[in-house]
Amino acid sequence: MPKAAAKEAEQLPAILRRLRRKRCILTFHSLGDADAAGAAIALKRHLGSNCTIAPPDKPSSSARRLLEATHSSITMFHELKFSGNEAVVALDSASPYLMRHLAGTTPDLIIDHHARLGGEIKAKAEINDPSASSTCEILALSLLPKDKISCISLLAGIIADSAGFKYATHKTFQAASFLLKNSGLGYGSILSLSFAPETLGERIESLRSCQTVSAERIGEYIVATATAKSHESHFADALIHLGADLAFVGCKGEDGRISARMRESLKGKVHLGEIMAEAGKALEGSGSGHELAAGASGKRESLESAMSVCLKLSEQQILSSESGKIRKIEW
Q1: Model pTM above 0.90
Q2: Which of these three, 194, 221, 240, is where a domain ends?
Q3: Do residue 229 and residue 170 come from a single domain?
């Protein structure tokens, strides 16, 4: 953990003690995932009953599965009645596009693990550690919870956001070991909470999406692009498993979204988070992520041009890479 992030994490228990004096609203990004939900569940149990989990919209299937399994109630953010004495805690994102429900609001605290690329929402206090695999990992190592539900929730979030420990560090395994020991469950039981089972419709859609795949060789690497009607992140993972070194999958739903995945072999040659930040600008939205997994979202009308940005920037980064260093990108 970077020194700055470690210092911030040490301050978290003290910050949370101050927040206990108020009614706390725990919210997270649009289409909240298992990491966001797991963090919210554990934090609610830490802060006490005077705390509400308030998603901005319907969480993802994996997040809903985790919320249901832990009997955690939620109230939609737009249904809340504010008195002015609430503390708002934002989890797992600082993107203004993914947190549009916080427009005009300054959160009391943001806990997030995504790299800061500029333009993020600001809070009175921030805990940000891009070296962490997940927001749940940050909370696990800071709070060291002992109750079963918190441990299960945080571990499920870690497993999901680290892609089954594919993006794990030694800190991730340290947190996972502690949580598993105190969860009272076997790893397989928690694994089933991290990844919602694919329905027949989801599998059919993934197979249909194969028709849209385009692959291009750039140097000694294969870059694949595709479009999907839904579950773009799962399809991006599938393209990597099929042989692509770098995959971009666009989805045109109510908004435009891009999920990107990359093999370890391109670390140091391609900066996926930077590419997604530029793709987010092209979408008139935002983008960010990690070394091997990232995403962007914005206006659906701009999806095609944003996909072109992804391909162009990845080509520039691959071809301009020398001895693991990346030249300045100009486009």
Answers
A1: no
A2: 194
A3: no
